[in-house]
Amino acid sequence: MAPSGTPLPTPTASAPSTPVVRRITGLKPTGHLHLGNLVGAIRPMVAGQYRTETIVFLADLHALTVSHQPAQIREFTLEQATILLAAGLDPDRALLYVQSQVPQHTELHYLLECATGYGEAHRMIQFREKSAQRDRVRLSLLSYPVLMAADILLHDVHEVPVGEDQSQHLELTRTVATRFNARYGETFIVPRGVLPAVSARVMDLADPTAKMGKTNASGAGTIFLLDPPEVIRRKVLRAVTDPARTVGYDPMRRPGVANLLEILASCLGGSPDVLAADYGSYAQLKNAVAEAVEAMLRPIRLRYTELARDPGYVRRVLADGAERARDNAADTVHRAKRAIGLLSH
Ligand code: TRP
């Protein structure tokens, strides 16, 4: 295993050395995946698997931090894994597994809790927001970012693609890793966050000031990746626009129309302000968006249907991934245990 904090050694001495970058992404199985997940996370991850060592896991332990239904977690976990494969994640290139099948996540979590302050966890904006919405708050909601730190540090990754909402958690990860290294000796690689392109943000069609999400109230403004074509069409045609009569790109003043143009750009390529000139009315624009989204999702939906016929295949991919992940992770946990004083060799 590589010495922590330094770039990984290159495999051969002959080729000019470009060190392999390792990346990790976690998806929480709390709902159906949607267009925002595809554009913001899944597509970049699938493209990235050819350039980087890609690790993807279904963060089912994180899904237990707020009230949950046991059967649903299992269903969403399998559904999300199947969608990732349907969208082109290649299990021979990328490591794909379910978090709870790799016990080293929780093992490292505890060790990192011993290097994290209560105040640090309590200050997290997401904890404050989520705990304010509930009267019963699980202790795991408070320690959630420490588990996230364990997820990341377990695999000696260099980069973590994070949206705005997770950047504070990544900062905490870096703080805890740096502190652990300083206190107990070099143990972890301190990873950097990579922010997705701004255009990768998809907003809710019914409320374009909010991010498209798995759990938005009615789902009316969310295009789920497995929505049938007529549902996609209906949601797009009902998208909120504004009273102006021409199509123009102005994210601040015309967020609904801007969102439609950004979605179109993410399907077709090109830039939203240039695309705006091609459409004379909202009806034309919406038709184009509905068609482009459907064309992008169709192959994923078809492949999903095929894969879902054989859940045994997906389960085998996940079991195999978990085994490889345990092998990698065992080494990190061993290092951390030795450093913190639990093992002598
Ligand atoms: N907290 C992330 C989210 O809510 C999911 C997640 C858990 C994650 N562990 C991670 C993402 C590790 C990246 C790396 O979306």
List keywords for this structure.
single chain, 345 residues, mainly alpha, Rossmann fold, Tyrosyl-Transfer RNA Synthetase, 2 domains, 3-stranded parallel sheet, two-stranded parallel sheet, 12 helices, 5 strands, 6% strand, globular, disordered N terminus, binds tryptophan
Give the topology.
Blueprint: E1 22-27, H1 35-48, E2 53-58, H2 70-86, E3 95-98, H3 104-113, H4 118-122, H5 125-132, H6 139-153, E4 159-161, H7 167-184, E5 192-194, H8 229-237, H9 255-268, H10 272-276, H11 282-308, H12 311-340
Parallel strand pairs: 1-2, 2-3, 4-5
Bound molecules: tryptophan.
Name of the CATH homologous superfamily of the largest domain: HUPs
Report the principal-axis shape.
globular
Whole-number count of domains? 2
What does the average pLDDT come to? 93
Radius of gyration: 21 Å
Q: Which runs of at least 5 residues are low in confidence (pLDDT < 50)?
A: 1-14
The counted number of beta strands is 5
Class by SSE composition: mainly alpha
Q: What proportion of the residues is helical, as a percent range?
A: 40-55%
In CATH's first tier, which class of the largest domain applies? Alpha Beta
Bound molecules: tryptophan
User: Main β-sheet: number of strands, strand sense, barrel status?
Assistant: 3 strands, parallel
The termini sit apart by 15 Å
Helices, by number, come to 12
